Amino acid sequence: MKKYLYLCILICSVCFAGNFVLDDFSGISNCSWAACKWGQRPNAFYKVKDGVLTLHYAGPEEKVKGGFSFSAGLKGSCDLASYKYLSFRAKSATTKGCTIQVYIRREIPSGKFSSFYSIVRLTPEWKCYDLCLKNAERSQANKGFFVKTKADAGASRQLSTGGKLESISFYTKTAEAVMIDKMELKSSLSNDGEKDKEIVEAIKTYKKYVPYAFQKILGANGPLLVKDGKSSFAIYVNKEIGATGDFAATQMVYYIEKSTGAKIAIVDKVAPGQNILELSIKRDRSHPDGFKTEAQNSHQILICGNDPRGLLYGVYDFLEKALGIRWFAPFDYAEIIPPQTTVKLPLWQDESFPGMIYRRFHYCSAGRGVPEPMKHRYIAADWCVKNRYNVELERLVSSWDTPAVKKERLDKIKNFYSKRGGVIALPTMWGHNYHYWVPPEKYFKSNPEYFCLDRSTGKWRAERAQLCCTNPDVVKIIVERAVEYFKEYPEREYFPLFQEDGSRLWCQCPKCRALYKNTDINSYKTEHSLNLANMVAAELSKKIPGKKVVTYAYDVTTQPPVNIMPREDVFVTYCLMDFSNPKKAAWEGYSGKELAVWNKLCKGNLILYTYNYLDFYYTASTSESLVRTFRYFDLLKIKCSCQESNENWYGVSAYHYYLSARLAWNPWFDIEQFQKDYYEKFYGKAADYIAQYQDVMGNCLANKEYWLEYGNKTYPYIPTEKINAMNACLEKAKAISKGDSRLINAVNAQCRGFQYVKAFSNAVVAGAEFQKKLTEEDYQRAIKCLAELDHIIKELTPERLVPVRALNQTEAMRRNMRENYMRNNAFKAVNKTYKVVKEITDSWNFKIDSKNEGEKKKWFAKDFDTSKWEKIKAGNWWGKQGFGKYLGTAWYHIKLDIPSYKNNMALYFCGVDERAWVYLDGKYIGGHYEGEVSKLWNEPFLIELSPNITSGKHQLTVKVHASAGQGGLWRPVFLLDKK
Fold first, then answer.
1. Are 497 and 566 in contact (CB under 8 A)?
2. CATH 3.30.379.10 domain position(s) in the chain
3. Which residue of 63, 144, 330, 370 is surrounded by the most CB atoms within 10 Å?
């Protein structure tokens, strides 16, 4: 019997025997290789040899158009519910790497089919890939998840629900070949699963230390530091230490007296037989910021820093352990100084040094729009030092200050930190700054090529765009700015070069596109940002050797690069974006896997950027996930941490900020003891009630069940029964706190923040109700709730309980609602003239046009065959319907049945992101593309049809171009008839 080479799945009764295998079977008609719809190519083939499938599309010199797929059908039945992963080993036969797409088609319920795809970037080396059989947002198509492409009406749209597997296909349009083997469905991961188990086991078995306790106790009869409010000890500090030694000594004196009433003298020399608390430095560059403390007899206490900062950290550590002092937050009520008249210490030896050498508290938007911002910033900066952050707090100086003000502020910063052992200087203009270095208002008119080429329009643009990342003149300008920067700040080591924030167009000029070398340019922009950083670093090194460039791996640039590697003088700030489920361990998400790759690529030149939010603005991390995450970082030996936080000192945020500081230093402490110490010392008699209150809030915010649809957004809220439970906790906390002024202030801060919790929840519920009904009454109620929320935010911002940027969020909510309200009213106005014939939502044929060839090939022409295009719906973005992060031009097509009406008809588009050109039966009939992109995407528009149009089937085609966001006919389309 003639043999055929097929990709097959071995079946055992009604389920898999275990693996996909490559073998030669016969008589299986539904397992076959198939050319894609763009047609056969003479040099395309597949073959199986020694168990390896090779897919070959074209030779290296051939022009590539279209692509081909290899599909595996089944001869038996397989329920996907039994499996969690599709695994295979693959590589590109080219030296450049390539991108493939993996498609799954399944049936559930009977007769209803849905399809999903995932994107995989292959390297020239063999590598194992594990694709999770769950569908996620389009942004995760390249993160090991699947994205829905299309589904029959009534078909399940969730891949994780299982269903009967119909086929699996591999698609590629790369030149040369792709090689695949060792395919199988798995219920768990053997490789990564084992690695995850190893991580979990390592964390479980890693020896934990007791927080706030001396590590090694030598005996019970140690120094009697204070007795009955008096001390026989003096503080001796070597004057060679300088300002830090003096400051450390005065801090020791201040806090001992505040706690015990004992006044301890600072002496220049030690008298024979005198009890001494000695402060010293022993330079140890192997462990910067570290310290040792000890008392080997009852007469001498030694605190020795590895450097000046280490000495000060040692003093604060001693005060925590010996006297029970804590600095929980930068407020009077959060500084805990236990009153005591006697302090008896054991004999001990202690040593500590940080796991991370770069520890930054990114106090985002600190003090903006609040009285006395500088006063609070310095209080916060002092709190950071006490909790062992070693990077300068931002906004103590601004690049917009006048020269005189800037000099005054820089002198103050220098004096402030020199007493505190010095500081790692923060680069000014940290953050999204492409357009700061190359301002569009200065350059765009004369040199638009410095910015972004939009291939769909053939025009350069700066609005909602990045820079051209290959233009040598752009590099020259940035390097000139960098030289100026280091002249002004010669002590600084890093030049910040960060992409602009948000969904922005990346340049599509030929040189920028060539960076990708056959990889998917629509989903990844890492090569863009790295190329620019590398070019700037190379030129900067010629002018100022030793300086470095720091850039982002953020949003669309988090994917590790394939074609361009970071130079040794380019530091990468990797932003841990996978916070859709804050209860998930870091190593379980795609960010954890990306991070491990980046860590190797950067060879230590990696700054890890995390988001310490669990509030209504962001839900990024729970207490548990923070602990797991930082322990994972330590296992990876990551040495630099930047923690984005905000003036959210209500709720669980204060605890997270304090916790994160200690995790960055050494994450291997007993977390239960740490948490117990926090609540008991901070909230005293009210500890249990505040802990319960914050536990309820944290669980609600981290639970996606408590999120509501709010127009085109979703927001968290806390249900009424949970609000009542939280309120009961606070009432009990207030009642038990009477008579303790510090505790009353601490509890009152939580009570004040609770006003925001209630107001925000009310606003979300009201807004969601309006979005359902779209009535005038519900709209006014929702607007009123937002006004009340704004009022509370303004009341709480001076207390730093809620940041002023929370007003930006409510304004976005108000704008969202107003736009829906106006759109609804506009539709009502249209209804005065027109009546709705039908909503044109389902069964649009859809095709992306990344090469911008649709116009030339007349995809809009009458009777143009679009039957093999993908299926999509109007009323939602294409990005949320399986088309990844695609930005550019795409085409919608549908057969429109026009009934017989006497009056004039029209098409009403409720919203197209962002430009639209409309064709009927091959003729252009109107569009919506002139004006500001930032407005076009959200404006409805109406196109009148010819009064002579006939009833019956017509071809409606819409060309859509999106340069940012998610793109498409994101609002419904209606066929109207004039009344």
1. no
2. 216-352
3. 330
Q: What is the CATH number of domain 840-978?
A: 2.60.120.260
Pick the closest to residue 967 from 860, 819, 848, 843 (CA basis). 848
- Cis peptide preceding 109, ω within 30 of 0: yes
Tell me the one-letter amino acid at 700.
C
Question: How far is 344 from 295, CA to CA, in rounded Å?
Answer: 12
Predicted pLDDT at 201: 83
Are the beta carbons of 160 and 135 closer than 8 angstroms?
yes
pLDDT band with cut points at 50, 70 and 90 for residue 841: confident
Q: Inform me whether the pLDDT recorded for 39 exceeds 60.
A: no
Tens digit of each residue's pLDDT (9 = 90 or more) over 476-503:
999 999 999 999 888 888 999 999 997 6
Q: For residue 97, which of 695, 558, 526 has the smallest C-alpha distance?
A: 526
State yes or no: pLDDT of 521 exceeds 80.
no
pLDDT for 24 equals 28
How far is 781 from 30, CA to CA, in rounded Å?
58
pLDDT tens digits for 190-223? 445 556 677 888 888 899 999 999 999 999 999 9
Q: What pLDDT is attached to residue 45?
A: 66
Q: DSSP state, 514? A: H
Span(s) in the chain for CATH 2.60.120.260: 840-978
Under DSSP, the state recorded for 702 is: T
Predicted confidence (pLDDT) per residue in 857-870, tens digit: 999 998 899 988 98
Which of 692, 708, 608, 680 minimizes the C-alpha distance to 652? 692
Using DSSP's 3-state secondary structure scheme, residue 833 falls into: helix
Question: How many of the other CB atoms lie within 10 Å of CB of 242?
Answer: 15
Contact 90, 129 (CB under 8 A): yes
* pLDDT at residue number 254: 98
29: Cβ contacts below 8 Å, ≥ 6 apart? none
Task: Give residue 613's Cα distance to chain centre.
Answer: 11
Choose the weakest-confidence range: 143-147, 265-269, 716-720.
Answer: 143-147
Judged by DSSP in three states, 134 sits in coil
Q: Which CATH number fits domain 216-352: 1.10.10.10, 3.30.379.10, 3.30.460.40, 3.40.50.720?
A: 3.30.379.10
Dist CA 70 CA 341 (whole Å): 80
Dist CA 142 CA 523 (whole Å): 8
Query: H-helix or E-strand containing 689?
Result: helix 687-701
66 pLDDT above the threshold of 80: no
Model pLDDT for residues 406-430, shown as the tens digit of each residue: 889 999 999 999 999 999 988 777 7
Nearest to 458 by CA among 532, 493, 524, 510: 510
Describe the crossing of helices 687-701 and 741-773 by its angle, rounded to 10 degrees: 20
Q: What is the pLDDT of residue 531?
A: 95
Tell me, what amino acid is at 959?
K
Give me the amino acid identity at 685: K
Specify which residues 113 forms β-bridges with. 107
Q: What is the CA radius of gyration of the chain?
A: 32
Helices (H), 431-508: 434-437, 440-443, 472-488
The mean-pLDDT minimum among 489-503, 726-740, 819-833 falls in: 819-833
Q: Which two tokens stand for residue 673?
A: 């003891």
Three-state DSSP state, 863: coil
Which CATH code, of 3.40.50.150, 2.60.40.10, 2.60.120.430, 2.30.30.30, is assigned to 4-189? 2.60.120.430
Give the predicted TM-score (pTM) of the model: 0.74
What's the angle, vertex CA 434, arms to CA 431 and CA 435, rounded to 5? Answer: 110
In one-letter notation, the amino acid at residue 649 is: W
* DSSP E strand boundaries for 830-887: 834-839, 844-849, 870-872
**Comparing C-alpha atoms, which of 530, 163, 605, 584 is closest to residue 357?**
605
- Cβ pair 308, 184 in contact under 8 A: no
